Amino acid sequence: xxxxxxYAKEQQEIDGLxxxxxxxxxxxxxxxxxxxxxxxxxxxxxxxxxLLLTADARKYVTTLVxxxxxxxxxxxxxxxxxxx
Length: 84
Known about the structure:
By secondary structure, this protein is of the alpha+beta class. The chain contains two helices and three strands, in the order αβββα. The longest helix is centred in the last third of the chain and has 23 residues.
């Protein structure tokens, strides 16, 4: 399987969980990859863990977390222009 195919599969799994209402609760990196813990609130509470093996999928999930933090900060501050 090509590296892109592996990444696309992992990205699809991440997007599928987010679409189902899960949010990223924690990320643990080790030499085997990144373990991402997803949690879901109402209506059906639950948790799920996903092991990401490709570097591109780990970068993708990190990008999602940073984008979420920026969106939260923008809502609290009233604006988010992307400047650091």
